[in-house]
Amino acid sequence: MKRLTTFSIIIFLLAGILNAQVNLERELTDYKNPEELVSLSESIPFKQAIEVLSTVSEKLTGKKVVSTSSFEGPIGIEIKNIPYWKAIIIIAQYNSLVFEERANVIVIRDKDDPTKDYPEDVYAPVNEREVKISALLFEANVQEMREMGINWELILQQNGLTIGGDLLTFSDESQQQQEGQSEANVIKSPDFNLSTESEFTMGDFTGNATALFKFFETNNLGEIVSRPNVTVRNKKVGRIQIGADISIKQRDFAGNVIDVFYPTGTIIEVTPYIYEEDGLTYILLQLKVERSSASVDALSTQINKTVASTEVLMLDGEQTVIGGLLVNESTNVRRGIPFLKDLPWWVLGIRYLTGYDQEQIVQKEVIILIEAELMKPLKERIEELKNNKIVDHRNENLDALENLNKSNREFREANKERIKKLLNLDKDEE
Q: How far apart are alpha carbons 404 and 412 in whole angstroms?
């Protein structure tokens, strides 16, 4: 019995000692050195807060606190009687910064940007805007248009909308005067005019112009060459080429013969710049249009170019017209007495007496209709997809509920007579 009592007393004393040690550890853990405590207002500038924390840290640990971040605003959170190292963590996390403790210094820096190593031409943020460029290329026969007496400005001009600054296809008055005709007898060809003004009015222009070009194409006054579309990022170059690349043989520095390709045809380069001012979103469109063709002879190859470049301000969905890109196409035509002019040379040489070869030059003008349309950014597209899925799911649920109600109605109608009979039987039994 004495042994049991002695053993109990020893256990009680040991438990008291252990509790005293735990309480002492807790007191030591919760102890705060008054020199470590800092208090900072939420409106204090970030750089000034770093200077205060650096002074305390250097005094206690010998480590300076420096910042390599570009952040210059207030810290945004109130610090009250908190150890300086906790204050560093709180301020860094609150302002989306990172702190790094090194051997002799504590560095606060910006978070690593995963896109900083990407070249600008291969990275686009989620709020990047795009512009859809739609072009219509119409190749008009100038001579046929003159004979028809077509004036482009009167045809394309509407109330509130005028197209282009008078790109004029000149008549051959000077040629006729040089041939000896008097000024009174000069035959004036119809002007081929285009205007370059564009007012803040949108409407039926696209449909009317397209229908007009199709009408000209039906009457063999020209043809619609193509209708290309291209989507271009903001401040990036979009390029459309309708034509072929010709090769010219050259020698390199080692004397080897190589083929160098040059683009020809109709080439359109577009660079859109999107701006937002006073609640208005508009596009500054840099346009460069080139019409080129190659002529090859025995000695050299010549590339004939007609280039037009301009900058226009456009609204979403607005159009502009570029004209005056002329090109001459030469074709060899056999003329003379029908049938006889086409006989083979060995038939007594009659073809040379009854016919001749004539080089016919056809002058054509390329008219380009360009429309700029702003595309929605990725965030808005994703939001639309989510909303569409929600609407589709809701419609599916409504359809399922309607089908269920319809099935219930059909079931009640089908079993209506049976229910009546059962009710009548119950009444008879009563």
A: 12
